[in-house]
Specification:
It is built from twelve helices and 15 strands. Strands 3, 4, 5, 6, 7, 14 and 15 form a seven-stranded mixed sheet that branches. It has a six-stranded parallel sheet with strand order 10-9-8-11-12-13, sandwiched between helices. Strands 1-2 form a two-stranded antiparallel ribbon. The protein is about 25% helix and about 25% strand. With about 350 residues, it is of the alpha/beta class.
C-alpha cells in the first residue's frame, strides 16, 4: 500500500491509503516519487472544470523520481533518476511520429492525473516509459528538473513557439503566474525588443521583472491597451500570450495585437470565451491554442544543464510529501501567499 492525493469530486480531495501500482505492460515503469508539485490544472480539476477526471482518481502529472520496477520492453534500469513528463507518448501513432505527443492516439497524451492515476503519490506507474521519462544528469537538481515536467515546455511550446516570437518583437504576456513567467523566461531566448507583463498582483509583477519582463502593467490600475499602444506607435504588440484562462484575458490579448499579430492562448479555460471575428478577420490575426507536446523537453534540459535557463527560481514553498493539503492551500491562495510553485519531496 501507499498514500496518494485522491480526487473525490468537485472541491474534495484527501491524502488516502491506496494500492501501490504495479507493472501492467512491458513498456511500463513504476517510479518512487522523490519530488512533485501542484499545477494550476489541478486547481481547475478541483473546481470541476475537467469532467473527464472522475472520483477516485489520483491527481498530478509532474514528478521527479527513481525507477523501482521496469517492464521487459523498457530501455532504462532500476535505480534510474528520471523526470516524469506531463505527457505520455505511445511513439507509434501518426501524431507521435510528428512529435505531437499531446495529441497521441495510441493511449497517451495527457493521461496522468486525468484518465489514469497520477504522480501526487508515493509511487506512480508510467506507461510508454521510454518516451515519457527523461534520464536526469547529476548536476541538475530534483527541483530544477521538476519545472520541466510541465510549465517549462508549456510556456516554451504553447506560448513562445506557437506565438512565433522573433528577434525585435514586442511581446505581451497576460498573466504572470508560473506559466506566464515560464513564457517570459523562454521568450528571452529569442531576443524580443521588449516583453510586457500584465497582471493584478504586485508580487507576480515583481516576479515578472525578475524573470525578464522589461515593463510591467498592473491592470487593476492601468490600461494595458493604452500602455502597449503608447510603446508601439499606436500599432500594438507583435505577440500576445494569454496565460490565465479567462474570457476577459483572452479578449484583452485580442485587443493588444497589431495587424498581422499573433495571439497564443496557453491558459486553461473552464468556460467559453468570446471571439470577436467581426473585429479580427480584416486585421489578419492568428490565434493558436493547444496542449503541450513536450517535444522540447530534451532541449530545455540541455539549456538547464548549461545554465541558460534558471528553473529553480520558480520554487517558493517547500513541503514534505505527506503535506499535500497544506501545499494545495498555499498554492490556491497565491494572491495571499505569493506562491509560484510549491514542491513536495521525501
Amino acid at each position: 500500500m501507499m498514500h496518494a492525493v485522491v480526487y473525490h469530486g468537485a472541491g474534495r480531495m484527501s491524502w488516502d491509503e491506496v494500492p501501490r501500482p504495479v507493472i501492467e505492460a512491458s513498456t511500463d515503469v513504476v517510479v518512487r516519487v522523490d519530488a512533485v508539485t501542484v499545477c494550476g490544472t489541478d486547481l481547475h480539476i478541483l473546481r470541476g472544470d475537467v469532467p473527464e477526471v472522475t472520483p477516485g482518481r489520483i491527481l498530478g502529472h509532474e514528478a521527479v523520481g527513481t525507477v523501482v520496477a521496469a517492464g521487459s520492453g523498457t530501455a532504462g534500469g532500476i535505480g534510474d533518476r528520471v523526470l516524469v513528463s506531463c505527457i505520455s507518448a505511445c511513439g507509434s501513432c501518426s501524431y507521435c511520429r510528428r512529435e505531437r505527443y499531446g495529441l497521441c492516439q495510441g493511449g497517451g497524451g495527457w493521461i496522468l492525473g486525468h484518465t489514469i492515476d497520477g504522480t501526487q503519490a508515493e509511487f506512480v506507474r508510467l506507461p510508454f516509459a521510454d518516451r515519457s521519462t527523461y534520464l536526469l544528469p547529476p548536476e541538475v537538481t530534483d527541483e530544477e528538473a521538476l519545472m520541466l515536467a510541465d510549465i517549462g515546455p508549456t510556456g516554451y511550446e504553447v506560448g513562445v513557439r506557437n506565438g512565433r516570437v522573433e528577434p525585435g518583437d514586442t511581446v505581451v504576456v497576460v498573466g504572470a503566474g508560473p506559466i506566464g513567467l515560464s513564457v517570459i523566461q523562454s521568450a528571452r531566448l529569442f531576443s524580443p525588443s521588449r516583453i510586457i507583463a500584465v497582471d493584478r498582483a504586485t508580487a507576480r509583477l515583481d516576479a515578472a521583472r525578475r524573470f525578464g519582463a522589461d515593463i510591467v502593467v498592473d491592470n487593476s490600475h492601468e490600461d494595458p491597451l493604452a500602455v502597449v499602444r503608447g510603446l508601439t506607435d499606436g500599432f500594438g504588440a507583435d505577440v500576445a500570450i494569454e496565460a490565465v484562462g479567462t474570457n476577459e484575458t483572452f479578449e484583452l490579448c485580442a485587443q493588444l495585437i497589431r495587424p498581422a499579430g499573433r495571439v497564443a492562448n496557453v491558459g486553461v479555460h473552464g468556460g467559453p470565451a468570446t471571439l470577436h471575428l467581426e473585429q479580427l478577420w480584416p486585421r489578419d490575426i492568428t490565434i493558436t491554442t493547444g496542449l503541450v507536446d513536450t517535444y522540447s523537453t530534451p532541449t530545455l534540459l540541455r539549456l538547464l544543464q548549461q545554465r541558460l535557463l534558471d528553473t529553480g527560481r520558480f520554487v517558493t514553498h517547500h513541503f514534505a510529501l505527506h503535506e499535500f493539503m497544506e501545499a494545495y492551500d498555499v498554492f490556491a491562495r497565491a494572491a495571499d501567499t505569493d506562491a509560484l510553485k510549491v514542491v513536495l519531496s521525501r
